[in-house]
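Why does this matter for the project? Reviewers at the last site visit asked to see concrete outputs rather than summary tables. In response, this paragraph embeds two records directly. Each consists of the residue sequence and, immediately after it, the corresponding structure tokens. Nothing has been edited or filtered.
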Amino acid sequence: MKAGVAFANDASGYVAGRRAAEEAIRKTGALKTPDVVLAFCAGSLEPNAAFAGIRSAVGARVPILGGSGLGVVTNEQVSRDGVSVAVMDLGAPLAGVAFADGVQKDEKKTGKKLGKQLSESGAGNALLLFYDSLRKPAAGTTPAVMNASRQLLAGIAEGFPGAPPVVGAGLLCDAGQKPTWQYCGDDARQEHVVGALLGTKVKTIVQVMHGCAPIDNAVHVLTKVKDGVVGLIDGKPAADRIDELVGSRDWRSQRPVHRFSLGLALGDRLTTLGEDGYVNRLLGGVMPDGKSVALFEPDLEDGAQVLLMKRDPATVLESARNGCEAAIERMKRQRARPRAAVYLDHGGRTAATAGTSTEEAADVQGIMTREGIPLVGFYSGVGVAPVRGMNRGFDWAGVLLLLGEG
């Protein structure tokens, strides 16, 4: 098993894609028949043009997976513009690749369709998933609406009983204004979800990195929730109640809100569960009425019990470093050697948004480079990973996938 990763940027998406793919191939020692290519395109480049450039370099038969990103990551780059490409020899072809459309209309139905196709492919160690995050673009003072990862994953589970762990991300190309592209194996599409089964020869380790803690350790109840909009929190207009809890109205201008989120507890207790005890859900922003708030993912229901979570910049960096070291050690304990890393980083974890002193992706980059592990990644809208026995969607999290052989 081996991988080559490269970055390129150019005024032409086609040229950037081709250059990155050619350099990635060179780094593998001129690999002639890759098993898969992972590729992500960010900034002003056209993702479909970048796909065509990558295809021209790798040939017609190699599946290309990935798509739009808010930024890209390699061993040498953390950039808001450009193309990152990983060319991989997995030791065997992918066990299966499938895609399905209609995610904007019905996430669960689309997930079920995808799961059913992949269930006919055979066994795999992990299911790599990329999907269109954007349901409805932002318009004026109305925040963008995202597709719900929880419904999509529920559909996959229904269509593919006994599916392997799901690792992946929801794709965005900006804060919710522009349509996104998905690389679906043979071509680039929109409003799709694509999945690929990694064969049983590939060893996988998944690590989720967070960086949030409860603001007040108090449980808050959401009511009058409809179509991804929360009317009331603790019986008061949602925006007014948040003003009280955070002691400020400054957050009202943020879309999405980037200093705090809603936390869903992953256990019987609702508080003091530790950093990895919660799934965070971003708030898309205040609605035009100034009273209700939009959910970034419309998957919370009336009566949901949540905690208000604050972002801790120091913990974001610490979690990234500790998570990387832990993932590498876990793979070594399995007597396997990491051969490639895929980092699916949430767009809200950039230094400019998270308030960190440095880019946390640069810490991931440094550790992977130190260990000689080729790294490809991008900034996403939502991360997907298995935690506590269930596949889940995460906001504000970094998802690291190590691929290895033993």
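We now turn to the second protein, recorded in exactly the same manner.
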Amino acid sequence: MTNLILRYIHRDEGNWKDRFEACIQNPAGYTAEQAEQMIRECLIDGEFFYPEKVGMSFSVATDWHELDCVEADQEGTTPPTLTLETLLDKLKESNKVYLQPIKVHKIPTGISIRLAVSWLEFLRGMRYEIESALDVPNEIAGLLRKRRNEHIEKMIGRGM
């Protein structure tokens, strides 16, 4: 049984890169290529994930990291942090929970899920800032959230 090294990257707004790696235990004996394909099937757009949600090191919490590659651990000196099966389960669960608010079938074909999620994160952050600045009462804030969500659903449904 050969362990696997999962290499991943965090890119900031200036395209500076922080590189990370995690040793993954591979009890089923998959090749690095097979394991990478299985992992990519669980990632957002086949390359993005939140390492803090699966118990791996991260650069910025709540920020996406990008899978670089999966390689066989030739040296065998790094202790494994997760099994491959546990990693796959955690990736599936963390991405499913995170993407629930978006109706993926309504995102226009030219828009990646990452772009749609980033846009919604921005809108949610702006709403929070506006509500905080105005000190909006709870019932009004709830009404604003409901109308905003309806508007976003309409825009995504129209392909804007």
